[in-house]
Amino acid sequence: MQWGTGRALPGALGGGGAATVVLEDPGHLPALLASDLTGPHSVVFVPGSAPGSAPDSAPDSAPDGTDGGPLVVGYEGSLGEPGGDLSLDDSFFLQTQDYATSAYMSVIGATLIRIIEEADFEAFLADADLACAEGEFPSFVTDPAVQLADLSALGAGPGSDGPWTRLYVGRDGAVSVSPGGRRLGALADGFAAVASEWSRSAAGSVPLGAVVDEDVRVRALDERPWLGRYLAALDAVRELRARGASGIRVSGFGGRLLPALPVNDDAGLPLLLWTDDSAYLHADGRTFQVGRAAGELAEALLVCGSVESAAAYADRDRLAHVADLFAGAGVPLAAAHLVGARQ
Is 289 inside any structural domain? Predict the structure, then answer.
């Protein structure tokens, strides 16, 4: 998940080098371990090697995760080829699919969906536009077993993506962060040079730099400043589907739970979702379930930004009560000074 999406898992960063590295050629393992591209807490995925050990071509002293060195994990298959499968010790299987054809494929297990050409990027944008206008989210991308790759290039912002989170070493020895990424250097260049090349690049330009024209990508994202919120909505819908929810709607995408509310909202705000029976607030990886009536109040606070402004759409005292409840849970829905003034 960390390597595919470019989103670091909690506690994964630190200790030097990249948190996760994928090699396409096991012959590159000795050079990788001899460099500073990995650190004591790195996980290195290598084709064909036994889990927790280095292949025969590696030096006898190559770290294997048991003595403070990187953990080397063997895999079969490929992480760089669309339509390919990866297996870890016959206990975990991951399929990689391109975006454009994924809509016509059945999800049968853990799946990573990639943009591998501009046709995939166009299909992604078309689905995002439909969700924004009509509230219809593609079912294959919101399946709980699916992850969308290279989020920083699709509008999520740079976040934790970069060489410190993930690296990909192709068969030719070129180093990037993903199979479709622009080259950041070579194994011999070292971590500082690779990280410097990433830092010199425009935010989000590297992960898809070899497969999508950068002018096309930038123009599409500039026309859709809400794409980061769309990606967050995919995560939230995916989580609710994993809990068995269906018929999920997301506030701001094709409508509101409280229809009278305006359509614009801040990309950094929590998400309000609802079904026929319940409403949900999704914020900072947590999801709160409330009744639909309370959901309407929370939505008014999110959209309007304060109890006073939201009072044009709902009862002020009830709004203040809901604002206080969520503030107590560490999720402010309204301007803190206005809630404090009421108290």
Answer: yes
Same domain, 131 and 259: no
* Joined tokens for residue 305: 């930004």
The three-state (H, E, C) secondary structure of 146-160, written as one string: EEECCHHHHCCCCCC
Q: How far apart are CA 299 and CA 256, in angstroms?
A: 8
228 found inside a domain:
no
Q: What is the rounded distance in angstroms from the CA atom of residue 337 to the CA atom of residue 341?
A: 6
Partners of 217 in the beta sheet? none
In this structure, the chain runs to a length of 343
Distance between CA 130 and CA 142 in Å, rounded?
14
Predicted confidence band of residue 334 (pLDDT cuts 50, 70, 90): confident
Residue that has been written with the tokens 């290195």 in this structure: 44
Rg (CA), the chain: 22
What type of residue sits at position 169? Answer: V
Q: Is the dihedral of CA 50, 55, 56, 60 positive or negative?
A: negative
Euclidean distance between CA atoms 247 and 251, whole angstroms? 13
Q: Which long-range contacts (CB under 8 A, 24 or more apart) does 220-229 make?
A: 220/121, 220/125, 221/154, 221/155, 224/125, 224/128, 224/129, 224/132, 224/155, 225/267, 226/132, 226/267, 227/128, 227/154, 227/155, 227/156, 228/155, 228/156, 228/157, 228/267, 229/265, 229/267, 229/271
Residue-range definition of the domain harbouring residue 56: 2-223
Task: Indicate if 208 and 272 belong to the same structural domain.
Answer: no
Structural domains in the chain (count): 2
Mean pLDDT computed over 273-281: 96
pTM over 0.85: yes
Shared domain for 204 and 267, answered yes or no, is no
For 33-65, b where at least 16 C-beta lie within 10 A, e where not — what string? bebebbbebbbbbbbebebebbbeebeeebbbb
Based on the domain organization, do 253 and 163 belong to the same domain? no
d(CA 73, CA 242): 28
188-200 residue pLDDT tens: 999 999 999 999 9
282: enclosing H helix or E strand: strand 279-283
Model confidence over 57-89: pLDDT tens digits? 444 334 455 456 799 999 999 888 888 889 998
